[in-house]
From TrEMBL:
This is Deoxyguanosinetriphosphate triphosphohydrolase. It comes from Sphingobacterium litopenaei. Residues 59-264 form the HD/PDEase domain. InterPro entries: dGTP_triP_hydro_central_sf (IPR023293), dGTP_triphosphohydrolase_C (IPR027432), dGTPase (IPR006261), dGTPase-like (IPR050135), HD/PDEase_dom (IPR003607), HD_domain (IPR006674), PHydrolase_assoc_dom (IPR026875). SMART domains: HDc (SM00471). Pfam families: HD (PF01966), HD_assoc (PF13286). The lineage of its organism: Bacteria, Pseudomonadati, Bacteroidota, Sphingobacteriia, Sphingobacteriales. The keyword tRNA-binding does not apply. Keywords: Hydrolase.
Amino acid sequence: MNWKQLISAKRWGYERRESHEQFDARSEFQRDYDRLIFSSPFRRLQNKTQVFPLPGAVFVHNRLTHSLEVASVGRSLGRLFYNLMKQEYPKIDEEVPYLQEVGNIISAACLSHDLGNPAFGHSGEAAISSYFTEGEGKKYQEQVTPKQWSDLTHFEGNANALRILTHAFNGKDPKGFALTYATLASIVKYPCSAIDGHVKGNHHRKKYGFFEGERESFEKIALELGLQKDPTNPNGYLRHPLVYLVEAADDICYNIIDLEDAHHLKILSYEEVEDLLLPLCGSESLKARLESLGDKGSRVELLRAKAINTLIQGCASVFVQNQDKFLTGAFESSLVDALDTEIVKQMKKIEKVSVARIYNAPTVVQIEIAGYKVMNALLEEFVPAYLKTNKTMFDKKLVAMIPEQFHTDKEDAYSKIRAVLDFVSGMTDVYAVDLYRKIKGISIPSLD
């Protein structure tokens, strides 16, 4: 793979249109960022759970604030990568005209990395999958192909993001978001289908990155950008190198910022947070500066900022130093896991504490259980109603609640199920709970 081909400004659905950047206020990749930040799916992230329940008396991160912060870190990673490349290869701009845009590409990809996540986070993903593996959805297995069934039984937010960005929904632009090929490829962490994913020890196939319905779309992107075939999987590809920087930005944010939220919610004491973050800050003099701050929340903010800076610097350096491995697909770990041994050791300690104290905190577990039940119940109502040939009056009422953009003209079971999943997975936490209560008769809509 080579950077000149990998960083393509060709736009999905408008492949023949020429760029006129010299006359525009924005580059093609800045347009990607703006299209995402003004979009409805992005705005809905404000009411989707990141870790802690929403809303709460104390402000904590949701999917939208998380995505904005990941985009900020991603932009810094991309900019630092470009600066380091420029130092090592002074004529790099002549060889790779768009390399200076890497920060914009990564920040746009970071904005969209959680776009396909359903309500209630990973609990929502699990609910969708279990509906088909353990619930009433098992009966549809005979109506779909093995590849399609693998999609349904392993619902993946990353693959759903690619669908949202490229699928022609009813009444919407048939080109989807019409993002550049480089940005689209940079969000696909696992460039294979569901049936080829979930392979332990394979960084390109840990999960999967596209549904069967988007296989041709991704293959078109891969061909344009020159992505290499995965030698372990003839139907899959190696990652676009920029995926590693998008992944690093996400890893950095959720590992560090979840600690900040846990402190706000009094799940972790200041002393515990300092013990976890100070070793990542790389400054012996920081202790005195921290002690000069009377507000412990301000101390945590300083620790967070310094720790993130250390991780950004380290990840960018690893990325530049291992160019050959990234361009040949030979790099088999995340950037964070390839940092200095002491940093990795401290990150593992943070992960261990986060799992034990944060992700299994009572309020987090409660929302996961409730969300699981809500999502599963919605599927039990809408999937059968949409698939039935002879619909009852109640079925017709349910189907009428699905917005027109999610309906499909196709008659096969997979397309119809996919249409319902598009609707349900796009719901916010608040909307999902409200709809659940209404269709179950727990609450009655106001007649005012």
